[in-house]
Structure formats: structure tokens, C-alpha cells
Give the backbone structure.
Amino acid sequence: MAQDNNPVLNIKNSTLELAPIVLFVYNRPDHTRQTVEALQKNELVDKSELFIYSDAAKNENAVDKVNVVREYLTTIDGFKKVTIIERDKNWGLANSIIDGVTKVIKEYGKIIVLEDDLVTSPYFLEFMNDGLEFYKDEKKVFGITGYAFPVKKENLNSTFFLKDEGCWSWATWAKKWKYFEKNTDKLIATFTKDMIQDFNFDNSSDLWSQVLQNKKGEINTWAIYWYATVYLNDGLFLHPRDSFVENIGHDGSGTHCSKNNNSNTSIVRNYNVNLEVEIKESDIAKQLHIEYFNSLKIPIWKRIFNKIKKLY
């Protein structure tokens, strides 16, 4: 594996156009406020355009909180420009993200994507824009994520590559997003048993089940298809060893996030990273993630106990 011997880019002092930030919000005013306020503390905020997609209420129960969110959005300042897109009907997160990303990236050529439960480090925008500039001509690099799972950090470089796209904050280019395809039947027909095992981090996780759940109509998601797109195109995503993002959505308030703290991580308070120069998946990082995902599996005795508990 390459050593951390390349200098960090000095994007904040350059004259380059920064990537627009696209934020997707719904009915969580407290989470949205924390997400925006963290972004406002970033050094590059005044050079960054912000697009906010606000989904309409799915039912009467969500109307009041959606309106509270939308009222708050009109007060946001500090960015180079703020554009608010209020959906007049409920698109759902997956459809809203696919549509919003496609429209903005077509105009700007690159993009940074956040959802309303992601609190960022003050150096998040610098890291994401550095990555977008540094790897813009690398065929295999499909994007950058700012989130890092709380894996063991021994022997890890400050950045590394994995096939997993890391949907809790990400950035990419139009020339890579054009490959995105949400085609469940095609994936099921294409993926072999060995591919599924690799896709699932040696079956330490069950990411593939999301494809099957989409097929059954049990969920409607987008991120698993972005991961599959990267995977099938032999692509890679840059990951940081230390997280620039904290997910605050695992409190039971999110549509697809259950209540747990398995993915809690602290965010970096200084910018001390070097961008990986060897464009290949990190064997060390993959193994550490496999160990981490395996550690989250519930023992069979506990699963049985939980089922009995639910019955009574």
C-alpha cells in the first residue's frame, strides 16, 4: 500500500470553482438545523453554493414538521448562494435524491451530497473538494465519502479506497454519475453467488438483501444501486480513516434508519490527511471493515431471546 507521502491540496486558497452542496430534507427540523449549522462552520462555506430539496409531506401527520423545516430554510445564510426546491408532492427520499443529483450535476459537473441527519466537521468541504480535484481524471475513482465507520485504525493510511460508495455524505462527478442505474432485475440477473459474497464484504454484512427488498416492494432506496453501479464498473470510492461526518439519524426518526448507536463516530477537528495515490482497493481496510461488520452480528441465542420477548 502506498504511504501518505503526497501533500494535501490547498483548495481553500485556489481560484477553482467548488462543488455545489445538495442537501435533502424532509420533516426533521432539529436534525436539519444541526446539519446546516455544522456546514456554516466550514471554512469554504462562503465559496460554496447550497441547493436544498425539501420533500412534501407524505401524510397529514408530517405536514406541520415539513412546514417548520421549510420556514427554517428561508433563514439560512453564509453560503455563496442558497437555492431551495420545495417539492409539491411527496417524492420519497430515493426518487428525490436521484432526480436532484441528476439535475444539479448536469449543470455543475460535480457535486457534494448530504442528507438532513449528517453533521460535518469544519474541514468537511475542504476534504471533499480536495478529493474531487485530485481524482477528477482517474477512471477508477467514482467518488469520495466523508464518513468513516468506527473500525480499528491500526495500519490504516489517512485515506484509502473501497468499492463501497459510503452514502453518508458523498461526492462525485457527472462523468461517473452517468453510469448510475436503478434496475433491480438486471442486478439480480447479473450478480453471481461469489459476487454477492464480495459485495457483502465476505458476507460480514447483508447489503445484497436491500436489492431483494426493493424487488419485493418492501423498501424503495437509492444507495444500494449506487454501490452496485460502482461495483459493476470496477470503480472505487475514497474513504477517510477518521470521519469528517457524524450520522445523528440513528435515533429512530429516520425513514430507513433504526434506533442504534453501532455506527456512532466522532468527527475530526483538524485537517491532517493525505490523499491515497495508489488507485486500488485497500486489503487492510477491507479486512478491518469485515471484522467490524462481523462484530455487529447478533448471536443466535440473543435473536431467539428477542423473538420470544416480542411474542410476550
User: Anything to note?
Assistant: The longest strand covers residues 49-54. The chain has one domain: 14-311. The CA atoms of residues 169 and 271 lie 17 Å apart.
